[in-house]
Amino acid sequence: MKRALVLAAGIALAGTAQAAQKLGEVQAQRSPEQVYAAVCGYCHGKNVGPVIRGRGLPAETVAYMVRHGQNAMPAFRPTEITPAELKALAAWVQSSTADPKEHGQ
């Protein structure tokens, strides 16, 4: 019985160590399109928030809003959108064209 508990505890610790190692790994940078689809597009363009594509919003404004939020929009931490991803996303939104499938408030 003791041996089974020790073995189970060892397996649990190994699994935890393996998970921690995966958490600490550097993830590949996502493209602006991937970030928009995964994070922004859920609200922007689906009648929850305003449409932001095709409006020529300044990249600095986009970056500020993403980090600080406003009203119902939450602020996104660097662990959610990396600084490099945010810089690319902000430039992409600024130069993007409108998507006729998107609708907003």
What is the topological layout?
Layout: H1 2-24, H2 32-40, H3 59-68, H4 83-95
Helix pairs in contact: 2-4, 3-4
Report on this structure.
By secondary structure, the chain is mainly α. It has four helices and no strands. The longest helix is centred in the first third of the chain and has 23 residues. It starts with a helix and ends in a 10-residue tail after the last helix.
Q: Compute the gyration radius: what is it?
A: 20 Å
Query: Helical proportion?
Result: 40-55%
Mean pLDDT level: 83
End-to-end separation in angstroms reads 62 Å
Largest sheet: none
Total number of strands: 0
Shape: globular
Q: β content, as a range?
A: under 5%
Uncertain segments are 4-21
Structure annotation, total helices: 4
Structural class: mainly alpha
What is the oligomeric state here?
Answer: single chain
Order of helices and strands: HHHH
